[in-house]
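Hi F.,

I've been meaning to write this up properly since the lab meeting, where we talked about keeping a consistent format for the predictions we share between groups. The idea is simple: the sequence comes first, exactly as it goes in, then the structure tokens exactly as they come out, then a line or two of notes. No screenshots and no reformatting. I'm using this chain as the first example so we have something concrete to point to.
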Amino acid sequence: MSVFASNQSRLKNCPLFLCLPRIYYRYQSIGVDLLVRILDKAAVQPRRKFNLANSFVIRRSPARSRLATITILIPRNSQPNRVDLVATVGVRGVTGIAQILFRIFRDGKEIFNTQQGIESAGSEQNYAVTFQAEDRNVRTGTHVYTVTAENLTANTRADVVGPISFSGLAVKTRT
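Output, unedited:
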């Protein structure tokens, strides 16, 4: 991946947070260039490391445990676009084989989900679950993205032990 801009001399000494809207990324894949412009980026890391002493139980469905929230701004005239979302959650199986449903919401509406089995004693117990979602053609405005977890399996238990990270990158695409 190479970074370039239409006016490199002016951007050469520009701090990233000031130049963000003017920076472009070029992705090369199978001889095809896809040009995108960064619109916004957000990242949070509520828990930076594995820590049993600071763990909490993943709530039983239909209740949910809120893990992280970010805000992304989509400016006017930014269609088409996409928001690339990546989450990592450290989970530990405590009893049974829990089926954990991870969900991502935009402004309270579910846009993505994935399920992961978490084993407990006598097997693997600690997991770093990473998943990625893509939200396309998001309307103009400020949007709140939230990642949650819920345990679908009765009589099992899984805890969040860290780390937890959640990031989003909004880009304007050509197609």
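Notes:
Residues 43 and 167 are 4 Å apart (CA to CA).
The chain has a mean pLDDT of 86.

If this format works for you, I'll send the rest the same way.

G.
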